[in-house]
Amino acid sequence: MRKIVMNSFRACLVFAQSLLGIAFAQQTAEDFFKSGNAKAITSDWAGAIADYSKAIELNPQDANAYNARSTAKEKKGDLAGAVAELKRGMELDSIK
């Protein structure tokens, strides 16, 4: 139970940070990835996709962002998009 509460608390903090932006600093790909994760936890799939897309725009080699965007697209019912994202994520993983 404690672990669930802590994870929820962290997700809320990341989500609040994403709403307010990072004061006086430009957001990084990792910031957008974390924000996408926070939105995914609340089932805000459109918001998660938008944040993962921004993370990919800033770091097009991030396989994790493609994989996460794949999951979000699948949850929204975009199976073709989810498969395409998963393939790209797998391509990037195989390069490492």
Descriptive overview:
- With 96 residues, the protein is mostly helical.
- The chain has a single domain, classed as Tetratricopeptide repeat domain (Serine Threonine Protein Phosphatase 5, Tetratricopeptide repeat).
- 80% of the residues lie in helices and 0% in strands.
- It has helices at 2-20, 29-41, 45-58, 63-76, 79-95.
- Helix 1 (2-20) packs across helix 2 (29-41) and helix 3 (45-58) runs antiparallel to helix 4 (63-76).
- The relative contact order is 0.12.
- The model has no long low-confidence stretch (mean pLDDT 86).
Please tag this protein with its features.
Serine Threonine Protein Phosphatase 5, Tetratricopeptide repeat, 80% helix, 0% strand, mainly alpha, 96 residues, single chain, 5 helices
Tell me about the largest β-sheet.
none
Instruction: Give me the CATH superfamily.
Output: Tetratricopeptide repeat domain
CATH topology: Serine Threonine Protein Phosphatase 5, Tetratricopeptide repeat
Number of strands: 0
**CATH C-level class:** Mainly Alpha
Mean pLDDT: 86
Low confidence ranges: none
Structural class estimated from helices and strands? mainly alpha
Shape: globular
| Count of folded domains | 1
Order of helices and strands: HHHHH
Strand proportion, as a percent range, falls in under 5%
Task: Tell me the distance between the termini.
Answer: 37 Å
